[in-house]
Amino acid sequence: MSTLRVFNTLGQKKEAFKPLKEGEVRMYMCGVTVYDDCHLGHGRAYVSFDLIRRYLEYSGYRVQYIQNFTDIDDKIIKKAQEENKTIEDVARIYTEKYFSVMDRLNVKRASSYPKATEHIDEMVGAVKKLIKNGFAYEVDGDVYFRVKSWPSYGELSGRKLEGMRAGARVEVNERKEDPLDFALWKKAKEGEPSWPSPWGNGRPGWHIECSVMSAKYLGDVFDIHGGGIDLIFPHHENERAQTYGISGKRLANYWLHNGFITIDKEKMSKSLKNFFTLEDIFKRYEPEIVRYFLVSTHYRSPLDFNEEKLKEARASLDSFYQTFRQVKEIGKVLGDHCEQGSPSVIKQSQFKAAMDNDFNTSRALGIMHELSGDINQSVSRWYKEKKGGREILEKCDLLKEWGDVLGIFFKKEKIEDSGDVKRLIAEREKARKDKDWKKSDEIRKKLQEMGIVIEDSPAGTRWYGQRN
Prior knowledge:
3 domains, alpha/beta, Rossmann fold, 15 helices
């Protein structure tokens, strides 16, 4: 169906993408632990895999996209205690906040959002199977995965067991067979939520949640497992180990991971006071600008967040919208009566080649800017020769189509149509006709203060609401 190649973290190389079932892609993305506001790193992760999903759908695949919510965790319990709330209230509040910011970033809703607390029985069953198969053991109500039971442990992260053991901290819990063994089931502590199990009341470990939920919704083996680079070890490594212990299968054929975000070239951290929630950023920059910034760099590359780059993202979007406005004016003139044309076949193949190369959005945006420049030149010729109008419109449609692949161009521009604006526009046009440039500039400045941007074109003066 496509010539798509993706970088598989398992093997550290680009591979031709071939789904398990022709024409269909099954994809799992690790979701948030719902105890706090989503930050910029979350935005990077979910926008990255949203555009991957969008391109797969654009390429003709039916995509089943599953993303979980971890709604039981030490951090959620701590948050509930601090705020004197139930864990259910904490999870509900921050789940709603997740959807609020991701909707504003134009992240498409997943096919399903399974929650950990809704799948406890399946998790208990999985742990029982791991014990039966010799991959896990129980110690006084706690159950641990026996890391040494799987020789392939460490392949995803490129780590050797010996090296990991040498650097491992010896935990207070000396009952574990190996310091690297990780919890599958945690014995209940006083005052904490718990569920019944063959080993007593308790709750599941973090890693088993994703193994169980991904298998339930996508099968023992699916096509793509996604997440941030910080999840490779130990989370994804542990998922692979558990799944092999349960089913003897490999879990996912392709492991894709997005890169880190830094703030002015420093790691984002609350301790460094350079930690930004998406809500904080949206107070200063429109979500579309933030999304454009996030997709302007290849999803696997590190991304440095700074004010200058956000301003560049705003300027780039504004240049595209200026192109759309010019074409809209031509469309009003042409209506349905003009010669036939065709969008640039060369540009189409270039865009596809960029995205087929492990979703190279940086190159794809460059091609989109080139097409926008071509359209602008054609618009100038059209005003002189009145030829090529249909081709201009079709190229513009293609540009918007590609924008939808990247999840941009979703901002509805505010067109001001008040009497005051019309009056000032008329006064400025008269001043320009009288060559009163000082008055013309004063009126332009006044309109800018009102949030109105002025454009002078061969078709006359246009105005629109300025972006934040």
